[in-house]
């Protein structure tokens, strides 16, 4: 399977993913959905995935060109560097938020009767968690991407065009980059190990909640328990999708850090990244479907949005003949 074929297959899926994510984020940001920590974290994950898909489309279009056609003026190379660093940052942040979401959900249902843990369910706690995660992920990204330098293409370079200044990115500190890339890769693998642990713990708590729900008699309490089970199922399914998607990226980062200069390794890992990117695009669409089919609150919000749109169409429809 050629890299160009993967890019062509990836592009329409990424475009579909962008459209789905726009709707997904719009639903999650409604007032009715911004009522708990988990949904706030879901908004953060949705925003990260949206940018990831937009960059994937841009990267696909660039990679389909000849190498020399991607050597630009200094401002464009700088912009490309910043956008790539931001994508790396948000991709990592997305996985971290998934781990934090699973851990927060586990602690919340494990200590449901302890009022001290009620703060874990509040929206403001979700915002604080996102802020801390953004800062830590941004620091790691800045360390990794500061190892690159933008240099002018000189005579003798195959992309040199006489009289036309062009620039490209080169790695400045190879040893430092290797260390940081391996560290980043190990962190990605660590999150992949942590995610199944929380998956098992959430399954155990889910079974306990199901048993408790069967023993309940009052309708109101039963409804509350049902919402708890739905939220836990939602987090569990999201955790599984991230577990499947993130592990290979960690392995690729480590390979790039250790064997980047070995002939053929960079090409091989580049093909793997594009292939995994195909599944990442599908993964983001899966998250929307999980919310739609598992969360009754999400379903209700979507229905209300559709009703509002329908009412507006009726109200703005053409007037009957003969009226003004």
TrEMBL record:
Parts of the chain that traverse the membrane: 6-28, 40-58, 95-113, 125-145, 175-203, 234-259, 271-295
Xref: SUPFAM superfamilies: Family A G protein-coupled receptor-like
This protein's GO CC annotations: membrane
Pfam family name, one: 7TM_GPCR_Srw
Keywords, sorted A to Z: Membrane, Transmembrane, Transmembrane helix
Primary residence: membrane
Cellular compartments annotated: Membrane
Descriptive protein name: G-protein coupled receptors family 1 profile domain-containing protein
Record organism: Caenorhabditis brenneri (Nematode worm)
């Amino acid at each position: 399977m050629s890299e160009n074929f993967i890019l062509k297959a990836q592009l329409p899926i990424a475009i579909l993913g962008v459209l789905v994510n726009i709707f997904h984020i719009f639903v999650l940001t409604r007032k009715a959905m911004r009522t708990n920590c988990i949904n706030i974290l879901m908004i953060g994950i949705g925003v990260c995935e949206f940018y990831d898909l937009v960059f994937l489309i841009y990267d696909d279009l660039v990679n389909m060109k000849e190498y020399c056609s991607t050597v630009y003026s200094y401002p464009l190379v700088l912009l490309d560097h910043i956008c790539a660093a931001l994508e790396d940052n948000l991709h990592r942040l997305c996985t971290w938020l998934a781990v934090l979401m699973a851990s927060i959900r586990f602690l919340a249902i494990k200590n449901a009767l302890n009022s001290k843990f009620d703060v874990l369910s509040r929206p403001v706690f979700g915002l604080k968690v996102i802020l801390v995660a953004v800062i830590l992920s941004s620091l790691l990204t800045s360390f990794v991407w500061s190892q690159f330098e933008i240099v002018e293409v000189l005579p003798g370079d195959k992309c040199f065009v006489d009289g036309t200044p062009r620039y490209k990115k080169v790695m400045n500190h190879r040893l430092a980059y290797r260390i940081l890339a391996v560290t980043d890769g190990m962190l990605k693998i660590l999150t992949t190990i942590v995610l199944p642990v929380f998956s098992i713990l959430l399954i155990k708590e889910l079974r306990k909640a199901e048993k408790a729900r069967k023993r309940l008699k009052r309708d109101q309490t039963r409804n509350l328990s049902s919402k708890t089970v739905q939220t836990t199922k939602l987090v569990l399914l999201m955790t599984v999708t991230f577990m499947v998607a993130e592990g290979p990226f960690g392995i690729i980062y480590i390979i790039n850090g250790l064997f980047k200069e070995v002939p053929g390794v960079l090409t091989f890992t580049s093909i793997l990244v594009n292939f995994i990117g195909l599944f990442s695009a599908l993964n983001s669409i899966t998250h929307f479907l999980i919310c739609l089919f598992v969360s009754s609150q999400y379903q209700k919000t979507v229905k209300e949005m559709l009703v509002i749109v329908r009412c507006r169409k009726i109200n703005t429809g053409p007037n009957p003949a003969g009226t003004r």
